[in-house]
Amino acid sequence: MIQFEQVTKKYPNGQIALEDVDLTIEDGEFLFVVGPSGAGKSTLLKLITRETSPTSGQILFNSQSISRIPGGKIPQLRRKIGTVFQDFKLLLNRTVFENVAVPLEVLGKKDSEIEKEVSAVLEKVDLLEKASSFPAQLSGGEVQRTAIARAIVAKPEVLLADEPTGDLDPKTAREVVHVLEKINDEDKNIIVMATHNVQIVNHFKKRVIVLEKGKIIKDEKEGKYETD
């Protein structure tokens, strides 16, 4: 469970990214965070990973205050959180298999464990046959599914997706979110997806949080993203 309790984030230049945010995300929940550019979506995600800290208020992850975690233990927090980016951040000189294996290598897993776990996750995202391909040989959807596989291979409790469909065509975008939905159903992890994609949000009918000028103006189960 993730809890925001009266969280405000004010940057040194005076910009208020989030203001008095109260939010509870239950275990196993799939949540869309929507709103215009500058509404605070990316800041909300960065607060969960402790890339930045709140100016006031607190964020609890499994009842532990993220802000109070000592600097040396932040990597332990981040091992529980997988992140998927709009720009993929894959290593171009490594194959699909090698890219997905990186988090397990960092954890010091044995080669036999890496082989088993990477193969299993590539099968889950329907990329096992592309294991030996390089990112430049993949379609946009395949690249993003590789990034998703890398994010979940270490079995995180939380998966954050920051505009993961931003550079994809509508059909491919929907396929990618279907993959996220499958992961959520099977692994029961929390998924928080920040997006501008009205069609995706309205198609999948998950919980929707609408941010505007740093404030939550709507929180709706099976919600929609209504724009003017």
From TrEMBL:
The keyword DNA-binding does not apply. One of its GO terms (molecular function) is ATP hydrolysis activity. Keywords: ATP-binding, Cell cycle, Cell division, Cell membrane, Membrane, Nucleotide-binding. Residues 2-227 form the ABC transporter domain. It is a peripheral membrane protein. Transmembrane segments: none annotated. It holds the Pfam family ABC_tran. One of its GO terms (biological process) is cell division. One of its GO terms (cellular component) is plasma membrane. InterPro entries: AAA+_ATPase (IPR003593), ABC_transporter-like_ATP-bd (IPR003439), ABC_transpr_LolD-like (IPR015854), Cell_div_FtsE (IPR005286), P-loop_NTPase (IPR027417). It is found in: Cell membrane. Part of the ABC transporter FtsEX involved in cellular division. Belongs to the ABC transporter superfamily. Homodimer. Forms a membrane-associated complex with FtsX. This is Cell division ATP-binding protein FtsE.
